[in-house]
Amino acid sequence: MRIDVNAFVGAYPWRRVPGTSPVELLAAMDRVGIDEAWVSHLPSVFWRDPAEGNGWLTAAFADEPRLRPVPAVHPALRHWQDELDRARHARAPAVRADPTWYGLPPAGTAMRELAAACGERGLPLMMAVRLEDGRQRHPNDRADELPAHAVRALVRSHPAVRIVVTHAERSFIEEVHFGSTPEEAARIWWDVSWVWGPPEDHLQTLLGTIGPGRFLFGTGQPLRIPETAVARLDLLDISPAHRGLIEAGNARALAAG
Amino acid sequence: MLIDVHAHFLHDRGPRNDWRERNASRLEAGRRVGITWHVSSVLGSWGATSPTYFPSPADLDHANEVQRELQRRHPGCIRGYVTVNPNYTTHALAEIARGAAAGMIGVKLAASRRSDDPLLDPVCRAAAEHAFPVLHHIWQHRSREYPGQEASDAEELGALADRHPDVNFLLAHIGGGGDWLHSLHAVRDRANVYVDLSGSGVDGGMLEACIAAVGTDRLLWGCDLTIDTGWAKLRYLERLLGAADLDRIRWRNAAAIFPPGSFPEPT
User: Angle B226-B230-B234 (CA atoms, 0-180°, nearest 5)?
Assistant: First the structure.
């Protein structure tokens, strides 16, 4: 069993990306042996109201149990709480917010309120540190990357909030994990899409220092080829049990609440 | 056969005390992936006593000797580039000659001098004498100056390649950061520039764009700092290409541009 918690559908505004339809996503999942994907609507990350993509997302996946929608929530727009209720009814495993693309302070009042509301409803909150390597972004793609301090602040906003951070590198993960209490750190999960493998062995190191319970299989596809996350795990010295946690067990437990 | 045209090893005079572990990790990961030959370079002292991208002659003496020792210690899986700093012409030419005499097979240029600068011409002439290809560090679309390096982009490498049609150039790490589409436009019609697929970048659509730009005849497989991303690209290409095209990228193109006999079949 393999669950990709970090997948997208829809066009990317800054370059041509192949394979952005649900059908193509399913084909890519078959290619690399992914059973289930948690999928965000890529175009709406950049919209004024990112929740406008949620209806399409849930409708498109209504008859496809392998694709689970991750609706977006803009917590500075009136009635944003309604999106959380819709997300629960749409069997969403998480909701997402990308504050720097929305033009919001990433640890400001609106985001803290969103984190608290997610905690109250038992919905994990997903955030991406980045979508592309900062060195290659389009000259007009200028939103800041998600800063580590924002994750530390948001996890403190409510005792039940659970946060999934995608596209984070080793130093970001270490800064947040060891900058949080053990209880706070236990409510944060990290996908492996941006953590380097050998010869640097960043992921192997993190599994030793932080433990396999905090990590999720994630690819960032179709912006990035999903083969990478699989190859990264294939190069680890890891027990089948721990690999199973990363590939599916942690995600299942997270979605189950 | 599988040739990684862009590898690096560390050593005892660099800033990292885990250099042995990193070198061992590269070789072990290479075994798992099936890498037959690591074609590697050592960039001076990696910043310990001169900057990584501006290595001093003294640091390069040691670095190239480390590279030669690696090749002697692992004759069945490591080949070496001679790393030079073109700001020190006499030293660079002497190092290339010394490296050639010791069985090294290419020249590595980092980012010590912009690639279209005339100071690179004597280095390229020396490379031609030994039938060495030149692996040049590239910032994909350098839109400004970056600290710590005098980086070049594909247009600037292309200008050098145009002046030296008898030398083959490897445009380093197309996935190593920056606008790879800009680079592919720049090298599309430059027959002596090969695209090295290494780098941590694994963008969807990048491999297709590489093939569309230069065909499978001018693509070279490599890893640089991340072997997992190299393996991922290889797995992706295995689904995208037939056996003949895949073999070109895995090793045949490399075998054709390095000196004859550089990559004997492993025993």
Answer: 170
Q: How far apart are CA A86 and CA A79, in angstroms?
A: 12
Q: Is the ipTM of this complex over 0.85?
A: yes
Residue (of A95, A65, A45) closest to A3 by Cα position: A65
- Please check whether residue B149 touches A, CB under 8 A: no
Question: Which one of A198, A201, A224 has the shortest CB-CB distance to B202?
Answer: A224
* DSSP letters spanning B163-182: H-TTS-EEE--TTSSB-HHH
- In sequence order, the β-bridge partners of residue B27 are none
CA-closest candidate to residue A139, choices B217, B181, B207: B181
pLDDT digits (tens, 9 = 90+) for A153-201: 999 999 999 999 999 999 999 999 999 999 999 999 999 999 999 999 9
* Dihedral angle computed from the Cα positions of residues B112, B116, B118 and B119, in that order, rounded to the nearest 10 degrees: 10
**Which residues in chain A are contacts of B183 at CB distance < 8 A?**
none
Q: Is B255 exposed, middle or buried (0-12, 13-18, 19+ CB in 10 A)?
A: middle
CA distance B37 to chain A (A): 16
